[in-house]
Amino acid sequence: MKHLQTGTLLAATLFTGLMAGLFAAFAYSVMPGLARSSDHTLVEAMQAINKAIINPVFMFPFLGSIPLLGLTVVLAWRGHGRPALPWLIAALALYLVAFAVTSGVNVPLNDQLARAGDPDHIKHLETVRLHFEAKWVTWNIVRALLHTGAFACLAWALILYGAHRLQENTSTNASPQTLAPAFHASAFGLRDAADQADLDRKPEASRHAHDGLPHAAGPQMVRRDDANPAVRTATNGT
Prior knowledge:
By secondary structure, the protein is mainly α. The protein is built from 6 helices and no strands. The chain starts with a helix and ends with a helix.
């Protein structure tokens, strides 16, 4: 499950980054360049771009990012990379808003431009351009910022998830190493306690032996004195 979360998060980050880069490129290069061109050039170029961009290379990451982001949120909610969950939710929300902008504003403007017909036969090219360019450029900047924000959230979530995985692996690897020193410490502690007990018993045994020596020697000396008449006579005389 952890490998699924890692792969899903990487794919979602990659796809979102591609969308952010695409719309940002339109914002800082394509549309400013077309803004300096003639009405005929702008209308013709945008009609051709809107047709060419409907291809699997664009559609797959553009549409596929949503289920991938949803899956990352579900997996994180279930405990796989939980620290990254708030950032994943934020990325999903930003992407959905950006998707709504594209579907609700930019795509209808593209369709409107396509319905205008062949630029060679449009009588009022300036009016067609006026109704398309400013609004499309503005909302393209909005969706570019939204996609960039989603990408930033995913990048940070990826860092948090990687740090969480590293911490889990470190804790797992450290557990056997932590038990071993504790076992050795316990073994040494038991041995030291046994040695100390032996040392305590030796002075005690020596003291008992020393205390018992006079008691054992006293009766023997009395019996020897009683057995020797000279000693008993001398003792009595004294």
